[in-house]
Amino acid sequence: MKVIVVLSVVAAAVAAPSSFQPRYGYSPAPTYQGPAQYSFDWAVNDAPSGNDFGHEETRNGDNTQGSYYVQLPDGRLQRVTYTVNGGSGYVAEVTYQGEAQYPSYRPAPSYNPAPVYG
């Protein structure tokens, strides 16, 4: 009898309506005061791995200017300087410093030569 009473109480507790009512919907979009303004730069120069690259950018409203560079495996430095002015889109100028250096070619046998018995 006790078991039936306990199970009845548990069933009633589980079936009882909850007072919690979740709120659905989204909050209004935030409003921003004034045009966007920022400036940043960063760089990586790690001699053991040969990594050398970086980026800098400045923005004032619709006018954005910046550049980024990377040390290429052939020894040249590639630099991209760009501007974005209002509706003009992304305008980039790519330059290279230095001259490409490639290792000299040395053919190597792709097999082991047959042994010579004498």
Describe what you observe in this structure.
By secondary structure, the chain is mainly beta. It has a domain at 33-101. 12% of the residues lie in helices and 39% in strands. It contains one helix and five strands, in the order αβββββ. The protein has one helix spanning 2-15, and strands at residues 37-46, 51-60, 63-71, 77-85, 90-97. Strands 1-2-3-4-5 form a five-stranded antiparallel beta sheet, with no helix packed on it. A hairpin with a 5-residue loop joins strand 3 and strand 4. The longest helix is centred in the N-terminal third of the chain and has 14 residues, at 2-15. It starts with a helix and ends in a 21-residue tail after the last strand. The model has no long low-confidence stretch (mean pLDDT 87).
Helix content: 10-25%
- Supply the number of helical segments: 1
Mean pLDDT: 87
**Helix/sheet category:** mainly beta
GO molecular function: structural constituent of cuticle
Signal peptide: 1-15
Protein name: Pro-resilin-like 37
InterPro entries: Insect_cuticle, Insect_Cuticle_Struc_Prot
Summary of the model, kept short:
The protein has 118 residues and is mainly beta.
